[in-house]
Amino acid sequence: RKNVEDFTGPRERSDLGFVTFDITADILNGKNSIFDWNVKQLFLYLSAEYSTKNNALNQVVLWDKIMLRGDNPRLSLKDMKSKYFFFDDGNGLKGNRNITLTLSWNVVPNAGILPLVTGSGHVSVPFPDTYETTKSY
Amino acid sequence: AAAAAAAAMLSLDFLDDVRRMNKRQLYYQVLNFGMIVSSALMIWKGLMVVTGSESPIVVVLSGSMEPAFHRGDLLFLTNRIEDPIRVGEIVVFRIEGREIPIVHRVLKIHEKQNGDIKFLTKGDNNAVDDRGLYKRGQYWLEKKDVVGRARGFVPYIGIVTILMNDYPKFKYAVLFLLGLFVLVHRE
Question: For this protein, what reaction is catalysed (chain B) (predicted)?
Answer without folding.
Answer: Cleavage of hydrophobic, N-terminal signal or leader sequences from secreted and periplasmic proteins
